[in-house]
Structures are given as C-alpha cells and as structure tokens.
Amino acid sequence: MENTINIGIIGVGTVGSGVVSMLTEHKELLKAKVGLPLRVTKMVSRSFKLESPVEGISVGKDPREIIEDPEIDIVVELIGGLEPAKSYILDAITRGKAVVTANKLLISQHGFEILKIASERGVPVGFEGSVAGGIPIIRVIRDALIGNEISMVRGIVNGTCNYILTKMFNEKKEFETVLKEAQRLGYAEKDASLDVDGIDSAHKIAILSFLSFGTDTKFKDVYYEGITALTYGDLQYAFDMGHKIKLLGIAEKVGDKLSLRVHPVMLPKDSILAKIDGVYNAVEVIGDYTGPTIYIGKGAGSKPTASAVVSDIVDTARSIYQKKKTKKGFVFLPKVTEPNLMDISELRSKYYIRLEVVDKPGVLAAISGIFGNHDISLKYVLQIERHEGQTVPIVIMTHISKEKNIKQSLKLIEGLEVVTKKPVMIRAMDDETPTG
Amino acid sequence: MENTINIGIIGVGTVGSGVVSMLTEHKELLKAKVGLPLRVTKMVSRSFKLESPVEGISVGKDPREIIEDPEIDIVVELIGGLEPAKSYILDAITRGKAVVTANKLLISQHGFEILKIASERGVPVGFEGSVAGGIPIIRVIRDALIGNEISMVRGIVNGTCNYILTKMFNEKKEFETVLKEAQRLGYAEKDASLDVDGIDSAHKIAILSFLSFGTDTKFKDVYYEGITALTYGDLQYAFDMGHKIKLLGIAEKVGDKLSLRVHPVMLPKDSILAKIDGVYNAVEVIGDYTGPTIYIGKGAGSKPTASAVVSDIVDTARSIYQKKKTKKGFVFLPKVTEPNLMDISELRSKYYIRLEVVDKPGVLAAISGIFGNHDISLKYVLQIERHEGQTVPIVIMTHISKEKNIKQSLKLIEGLEVVTKKPVMIRAMDDETPTG
C-alpha cells in the first residue's frame, strides 16, 4: 500500500458527490491511465449528497479528521466560501498535504497568498474546478500556452446568465420571467445576484487574469455589470443589427494597462462566442504565438466540475508519487490494449449522394429501386436542372443507412448506363452539437 | 548553472526557428512563469531557417553533437519523417535524455513503442506539436480529461484541406483551381496528396485515438478518404440543405468497437465545427463527465507549433528539475507583479444605447447634440415606433468612442425631461473572430 495515494474530501455536496462517483465508477480506467492507485479514505460533510455510502470510505462531520490524518496525501476542499475553507486549506498545506479545491471565491481573493505559502512548503495546489467546470482553462493557460505572451482572455464564464439570455431571446421573454423559471428549475439560485449581477464572472476573471498576466489581481480589481437591465427588445434590436448579446468576462492588455471587466457585449452573430448558448461556457485566449484559441464546454454542474477536480487530483498524485519514489521521473504510459476496430462498412449514417445522370424517363425509378432493394430510404431527391437527353446532377439525402448497403447500391448505380460519372458520397452528421 | 536545463534542437526549419525565436524572445517571460532557466545550447540543421545566428547557441550539421552531449538534458527533434528521426530519438532516450518532438508521422506509427522504451528508462517524451499545432489537444486528452471515459474525438485537423474547402465555397471555385492557388501561395505542398487525400488527418486520428482509448492504434488502422472528389456544386447543394462540408478525422466508440476514419462530413451549418474556416483547426472531445468540449485554434505554422513544442519543453524541464533537486516537489508559482489596472472609464468601444423617450419634435436633436458635444459619432439611430406624445424606444449604435464620454453623455441625457427611464448601454465587440 505504500504507493497508494490517499485522498480526503471535505464537503460532499453537488461537486463532491460527483468526484466520489467519478473516482469509484472509473477506478479501473484511472488505474490504467494513471498507473497509480488513488483511494478516497475519508469524507466529511454536513449534508452528504451521495446516493449511497461507498465501501471502504469512512465518513464523518469534522474536517480535522481529514486535515490531521497523517495517512492522507491530498485534501480536497469542496465546501466553498472564504472561511473556514481558507483555514482548512492553510492548515493542510502547513502539514505538507497537497490541496485540490474548486473554490472560486477563495482563489479570486486569496489565490496568490495560498499559492505562495504552498510553494514555500513545496506542496501542490490545484484549482481547475474554480473556473468554467468542464473546460480545462486553468491548465491551458498555466501549462499549454506557457511560452506565449497573452494579450487577452475573454469569455462566457457564467452558465446561469447565458442560460437566461438564451431563453430570453429564443422565447421572446423578459428577464424577470426567465429568472423565475430558472429558479424554479434549479438553474439559478434563489438569491441570484451573485450570477446575474456579474459578480461570479468577476471572480473568474480575477483568477484567469492572475494566471494569464502574472499579476496579483483580485476580485476587487474587476469592474462588473450584470444582465438585469437587459430586455427582450435589446436582444432583438441587437440581432436585427447582426449581433447577439452575451455577458463576457474580459481581461485585456490595453497599452501598458490591464483592463479587467465583466459586462454584456454585443458580438457579431456569426462569431463563435455568439453561438455558445444555454449552460455552455467558452473562453478565448489570445497568445502572441498561438493567435486566438477558443475552449468550449459545460461551465458548471456536478459532473463537469468533478472532471476538473479529478484531473487536479491525478496531477497532484503524480507529483506526490514522484516525491515518494524519487529514483526516476514519473513518465506517462497508459495501459495499452488491442483495439477492436470497426470496419468502415459497419458505419451507420445519413448520406449525401451526388450522381451525374442522363436526363431521361425512368432514371430516377431505376436509382430509387436499387436503394430500396438495399434497405435505404431517401429523405430528399433533388434534380436541380432539366435537360432531356443531357447529363444533369441528382442530389440525394438518405435517412440513416448502413455504409455497406450504400456502397453496394452505389456500385450498382455506377454500373447503370445512364450514370456518367463515379457517384460522390458524403456522410452527414446531424447529431446534437454542444451548443444546445 | 547546475539547475539550468540545457536544450539541443535537431532540425531548424519552419517549426524549429519558431521554437528558437520563442525561447529567446520570451526568455524573461519564461523565467518568470517557469522559474527555471531554459537554455538552447546547440542546434543542428541541414538548412537553417533562422533569420540570424543567436548568441550563445552553437550550430552544427551532425545530430550526434546533440545526442551525445552529456550537458544536454532535452533533445528536440524537428526533422520529421520516420528515419533517421526514430533512431535519433531512441538513441537520446537510451542515453537518458528527455525528448520533445512534433513528428506526427513517427508518433502515428511508432508512438507506443517509443513511449514504452521511454517509460522503462524513466524519460519523459512530449509530442504536443504533432497534432493541431496551437491547440493543446494532447495535454487536454492526456491530463485534463483523464478521469473521463471518452466516447468520441472528432475534428478538423488538416488546415490545408479546410483552407481549400473554405475557398471553394466562398469563391465558387473548383478543387483543382483552389489547390493550384494554395500551392502558389505556399498553403499547400507541391505534392499535396498527404493533405488532400486525408492521410495527414489519418496520422493525427491515430495519435488522438491512442491517447483517448489507450489502444495501440496506428495509421494503418484508420480508414481515409480525401476531398479531391468534391466540387463547388457539392458544397453549394449541401449549404442549400442547411449543411457545410468539412473533412473530419473521427475516432469513435461504436458499441464495443472503435471506428477510426477520415472523410468529408456534412455538418449542420450552424454547428461550431461548420464555422471553423480557413487554416483553423477544431477538435471536439466527448467525455462521460465533461460532456462535449471543443478546442479551436490554428492548426499549423511556425508559431502555433512552436508554442506547443515549448510547452512540452517546459513540462519536461520541470520534471528534470524535480529529479535534480528532489528535496521537494516543484510547485507552480509564477512571479507576480502589481497590476497596472485600466479604469473602465478609459475603455474605447462601440456602444449600443437604448433610450425610452417621449416621442415629440426636437428630442432626437437634443440627444444627438449631447453626443456630438462629447466627441461621439453615431452609426445608427433607430426610432422603431412612432406614437406622438407617448414613450417610445430609440436605439443608437455609436462609432468607437470613449467610455468616459459615453457615461457623461448618458448622465446628461438621463436628465432630459423627455427621457423616461435610465438608458441601457451595451458595449459592442466587432473585432475579427478567429474563424477568418
């Protein structure tokens, strides 16, 4: 057991229960990918939101059971708020324990102070879960873009506001109406001011700014406006002028100054950020070497945030493991298995097909017959031009069909005397995009 | 100098020169962010593409000068191709040197083999530059989404094809014409088959699949089709049916099988992937906890790929540093400076303004006068309804103006007797989106 990484979780609410479920549900997967046994040994919470107790994990009420346990390597703080979260974290760091937190309020106000103390003790602190849930934006800025001079970070970082704006526009409703609906459905808090006044976005911008520009920026440095003054009319007027309105958090270098702000922004309606609807978040980072890059995903919720917290746990565990073993560096090598490959002939898809055919009676019947015999039903058949006796294109869209049947049909169709060229076939993907 | 990380670069062409320029140009920034002195000590290349020699870096022709140099910690391989790149890399690993490469061909065919040998020796190998240049997709899949069971990775991973398809559609041109233009402009190789036949995308899908599913998938396992059969007509018919055509690489779990394929796909024209134009790449990853996430950025080119290579160098350097120092873990703590904050009043933007005013003669003149006196010029003024004597909305869009002037104007306007409500003001961002 000496190389097991032991984890204690303080706060088992929405996010905490997601973390426990990810770590237990994907135990084997994580072992294969990480190569380290991660074990949650203790959880404490005032109100456990777990569906059932998990075998092998002791539960309690007192966070000190975790902080003071010499067997625990990583303390995961998920209670939120400034205190007692800050004291718990500093206490854990002082005892040499690694810390993982999703506490945006705390990090946006005391992030640098906490990291400084942790750095002096050589203790890793992860906070990926504090901004934009399922989007690994902390890791991207901190590690992936590290060689870049960043000029701007901006994005939709509050799902509640984005949900409200999307609903207002799509359903032609006013702010108050949609807010009440959102509150009833649990998408907005009863006291929604943290979200709709732009405060939550300002917390996140303070954190992103700190990471991007290396400045000790805090929540108090961010100018913010919310969305409460917007009417359906504003969204419609904006749209008529070619724009959509989104609440953006922005951290931008302007000359030698840094502009930190949160406010509604009119974006060209065809831009990527304008298309991010509902509970999705999106963050754009402009680096001098990468140019603009955009990261899109679900911004909150139990599972996406759990994914962020677990990625921090794994990162931290690797670093602890390295300290324990020390002989050689820990090198990523996943367990590799033989792939069970699917042949392209087994694919099921909708298909666009373009044929070049001689325009004469009976051609369409012959083609449709071949498709019908191969269990392929057609959604559209378009013959765009008519030139009796000459070659014209026919464009076909099928319903979901088997690739094998499509290819057999096309072979037969290609053999028809009236077909003058090899058919062109393109697979269609109509599945839901993540912007709904 | 004991803690300096010494770097040798083999191959100083397009990407290599970008790496050298990033490491020298951003030397101070990297020192502040990483806390480690990174030093390129040697470069070898058959054809240096550097604009000028860089002080303190010795240059040569023989890669063994780097591989056999006991002072060098990290070997950066940027010559591409299978051999001699593979031998150089394995030789470096055997000598205990860390390796960073952007070689997609090599990794797509021998990635697992190389990582296995490196893992046995405890030597880190980075290959972020091998897929989608400026998008940190390797790091995202390997680290950020590590707790997720991934069901699909798909994306636009070849900028040349995307450039050609974008041009064909926008300029109503045929494939051959656009390809020739692209070749003349240097956006496509003289022998473009690696790109336009889908082979390059297939290399990248093999790598992404290996990372996402932990299967030893290689290039040979990927079914591929290119874009050479597509006509302008196909793009237009697709668009008329609500779709855009993109060349996608796809790695997807279908039941208990894995489908690896590259082919043109019709996507709903309002989807995010359909909006990725020109030389931009985009990769969508669906994890069971995160749900769908999308990553967008420039896919190739000297600077974006250099950014990826440098992020690997930094990552590797941290791990080497940790091995050298060993006492305590290396903990991220950037150098932090006092921010020079810009006040919101200094912002320059276009502004959308909605006023509720009593509809009577002279109102517009009064309002325009106030804006004029504050150096604000108006792009649109729309009075949508007319109801003499009643309250009606007026919508205004300004040209770029100073926030201070806008706020002063609005204060005066709010004080006008005919203005019945607090004005609503929204900042507009019309800057180029990264999809051009």
Q: What labels describe this entry?
A:
homodimer, 436 residues, alpha/beta, Rossmann fold, Dihydrodipicolinate Reductase, domain 2, Alpha-Beta Plaits, 3 domains, six-stranded parallel β-sheet, six-stranded mixed β-sheet, 14 helices, 17 strands, 37% helix, 25% strand, disordered C terminus
Strand content of chain A: 15-25%
Task: Give unreliable regions of chain A as ranges.
Answer: 432-436
Q: Structural class of the secondary structure composition of chain A?
A: alpha/beta
| Global shape of chain A | globular
Secondary-structure map:
The structure is a homodimer of 436-residue chains.
Chain A: E1 5-10, H1 14-25, H2 27-34, E2 38-44, E3 58-60, H3 64-67, E4 74-77, H4 85-94, E5 98-101, H5 104-121, E6 125-126, H6 137-144, E7 150-156, H7 159-171, H8 175-185, H9 193-196, H10 199-213, E8 223-224, H11 232-240, E9 243-254, E10 257-268, E11 280-287, E12 291-298, H12 302-325, E13 348-358, H13 363-373, E14 378-383, E15 391-398, E16 401-402, H14 403-415, E17 424-428
Parallel strand pairs in A: 1-2, 1-4, 2-3, 4-5, 5-6, 8-10
Antiparallel strand pairs in A: 7-9, 7-11, 9-10, 11-12, 13-15, 13-16, 13-17, 14-15
Helix pairs in contact in A: 1-12, 4-5, 5-10, 7-8, 13-14
How do you describe this structure in short?
Chain A is built from 14 helices and 17 strands.
